[in-house]
């Protein structure tokens, strides 16, 4: 009886023994050869280094994906003494700000380069301290802290790894902090409304205990003053980051100052409440009253009637810049101090008909 293991391949079988064996794992040299670049350039592209053009980076990443290239993280760690992981601690309970920041940071760290470990401190500094301890036990190379607002306590310069603070600055000026330019954002909103021909402009801020609220109002006030204007009511009105406050504040303003022709709102939620109130009052937007928001929160601005003009804080760019600063610090080139990232205005139907 024939031994099955000794049978020859049946006729028509086209696979050789070599072809039946698992394919050889792709190396960095394979990726470089496929992309038509040097090994060092391929390494820089995959590690998200800034000294590589976008076209070259895309070509290398495509080659890596096609070859299913995956670097040996254990080998890299043994050679470099690094874990190639970074911790990201967030205090943004809803993820509205931390999610785009996380996406930007991941983009900047690059394909198969540095992994992010996400921790939610839930606004609790004791929880944050525990998470720092856990991340250090994991031997992370650095930590990104995404605060909720205002200057926050430093987690300490005695840590064995560098730390970058995003969205909310560290209270220690010697730390690396990057935040949105809230003053510049308020100025953008006011200048846009002035350019649209509005002259009776009110400012409805959010919660005044959050630094962002008075800072945005400060920028708007400066732009109005530069145009020889004063805000309706003599100054900003503050409340909360809610649609309820937007509705209430709008009703109060219109009842006292019926000739108001524009409103700068401290957030998209406040602006949505304002739009509701104006509709109840029979005021057309933007014909009678123009409205701006802040955050460019897609679910709110696109669902508004009309779609809401809003300030975008470029949070993905904030994440990319934070990742770049952390990488520099990990490599021994920290940039201590406070950086402010410019915001941009996204114009929609609530200010331009």
Query: What's the total number of strands?
Result: 11
Helix content estimate = 40-55%
Average pLDDT: 88
End-to-end Cα distance, whole Å, is 88 Å
Helix and strand pattern: HHHHHEHEHEEEHEHHEHEHEHEE
Biggest sheet strand order reads 2-1-3-4-5-10
**Sheet with the most strands?**
6 strands, parallel
State Rg.
27 Å
Number of helical stretches of at least 4 residues: 13
Basic shape: elongated
In words, what does this structure look like?
By secondary structure, this protein is of the alpha/beta class. Helices cover 40% and strands 14% of the residues. It is built from 13 helices and eleven strands. It has helices at residues 17-20, 28-35, 39-46, 54-66, 73-80, 98-109, 125-137, 182-195, 212-226, 243-256, 268-280, 298-301, 315-330, and strands at residues 85-90, 115-120, 142-146, 163-166, 176-180, 201-204, 262-265, 290-294, 309-312, 337-341, 344-346. The strands form two sheets. The protein has a six-stranded parallel beta sheet with strand order 2-1-3-4-5-10, with helices on both faces. Helix 11 links the parallel strand 7 and strand 8 (290-294). Helix 6 (98-109) packs across helix 13 (315-330) and helix 10 (243-256) packs across helix 11 (268-280). The longest helix has 16 residues, at 315-330.
